[in-house]
Amino acid sequence: VSSRATGGGGRQHTLTFLCRDALAGIEDTLTLVTRPAESDRAVDQRAAQSMRAVFARYLARLDRAAEITIGGAAAAAAAPSATHDPWGGWVFRTNLNAWGSGQSSNRSAWLQAWTSASHVTATRKVTASAYLNYSENRYDYSGFRYFSASRSRGTNTRWVFPLGDRWSGALQASAYASSFSNVDLAVSGGPAIEWNLFPYEEATRRQLRFALTGILEHADYTRLTVFEKTAETLAQERLDVTLDRTETWGRAELALSFSHYFHDFERNRLQAYSKLGLRLAQGLSLNLTGNLARVRNQLSLPAAGATSEEILLQRRLLQTDYEWWGSV
Fold this sequence. Notes:
This protein has three helices and 15 strands. The two termini are 23 Å apart. The strands form two sheets. It has a twelve-stranded antiparallel β-sheet, with no helix packed on it. A three-stranded antiparallel β-sheet has the order 1-2-3, with helices on one face. It has 328 residues and is mainly β. The protein has helices at 40-61, 73-78, 308-312; strands at residues 2-5, 11-18, 27-33, 90-102, 106-120, 125-141, 144-162, 167-178, 183-196, 206-221, 231-247, 250-261, 268-281, 284-295, 322-327. The protein is elongated, with a radius of gyration of 25 Å. The longest helix has 22 residues, at 40-61.
């Protein structure tokens, strides 16, 4: 069973039946679409009804059809009924999170707000989102006093349209500001095209996507950068390759990304992300996740550098040649 989110806020579950032994070589696929307000019990009942129908066919091939009884009343009652959508297929989400802690010598606070709108159909996908992040730290200990705050905000818009069962195109635009990255305002946008080795209808089971994106960006910086810039307009491109497989033994993901600026090809970034989930035995699984990046594109680094406090509290973007993280 594999799944993915739907444009209406629910999930599309794909049930793939892989037969062995006497039924080897037979493969069936069923889809089950759920709604956000649908209970887990209702989803389970509908999934069970779908599986009964498939199992009945298999038992008939084995001359054992008398061993199964298909009941339809409960499953039919649990299925969501079609209702009028006053929003015309648009889905809106809003999220607000706040956190705080303190003691005699220090206090910390964090706030995040996020909102989005999306409209997903078989012929187009339109998404828009906006976010706001704020965090602060206050220290007062043995005569040492320090206050630090970090702010970021931005918006993203993307329109995706199909160009066949393996091709799709997109137009995207974004804007953001970040005290951490030394950016007063950066506005960017451009086209993208993607090709999938497998048809998109198989996306919950397997994907191998190649995407090429062109980006034109204008950035105004808060402080003078190490390249002696207070503002600049640049063009860049990004190539993404993504492999995603869901099998009986587990799931594997691998994503490679390479981007560069046209004015200087040495200003680039190469990144690899991988995730492997293995089912070792009943009730026992192993999950490995890792990310590694070679960084050569830090154009917004401030020429003045960062204070010791900003370095320790990670309030400023620091020069680096690489980034990595991993988990087991």
